[in-house]
Specification:
The chain is of the alpha+beta class. Helix content is about 30%, strand content about 15%.
Length: about 160
């Protein structure tokens, strides 16, 4: 079995922020100029973490059926109990909101890092009341993956 490192032992820095910045510099997509959705970042970061022997989990936030159309299911990677959200903005995380928010591109290169214990404080205001852990296969593979739309920015030139 592969030995998985926590972020403290990560060779590119001793903070989760340093690890995230390494991911951003390694990312082969143009995330500084084009929007990607939460499924893209969860998948791309998870695969990058796996390649670098970092223990990463995926956390899924289901939309509540009685919420407005400004909320949609959301997925983020988590390392060492910290949610890493590349699409979080002060106004929300849905694609519709992010397309109208000029800070959306900035959030992709300066993601919101939240301890899982603060989930309700940070995401409750957007209507997310619960979360659960999912596997990569549940999220992205198989006959009926949870994340059926993975919108990626174009590749860096």
């Amino acid at each position: 079995m592969r030995h998985l490192k926590t972020f403290e032992k990560f060779i590119f820095g001793d903070s989760i922020e340093g690890m995230v910045q390494k991911y951003i510099s390694d990312c082969s997509f143009d995330i500084q100029n084009e929007l990607g959705n939460c499924a893209f970042f969860a998948k791309d970061f998870y695969l990058w973490a796996f390649k670098n022997d970092v223990d990463c989990r995926l956390v899924y936030f289901p939309q509540e059926s009685n919420q407005s159309d400004q909320i949609e299911d959301h997925i983020v990677p988590m390392v060492d109990g910290k949610l890493i959200d590349f699409v979080w903005t002060e106004d929300g995380v849905s694609k519709r909101i992010r397309q109208m928010d000029p800070t959306s591109i900035e959030s992709q290169t300066n993601p919101k890092i939240t301890p899982i214990e603060e989930f309700r404080i940070v995401y409750g205001k957007f209507g997310y009341n619960d979360y659960y852990f999912v596997t990569f296969n549940q999220a992205f593979l198989g006959k009926d993956p949870m994340c059926q739309t993975v919108e990626k920015p174009s590749r860096k030139r």
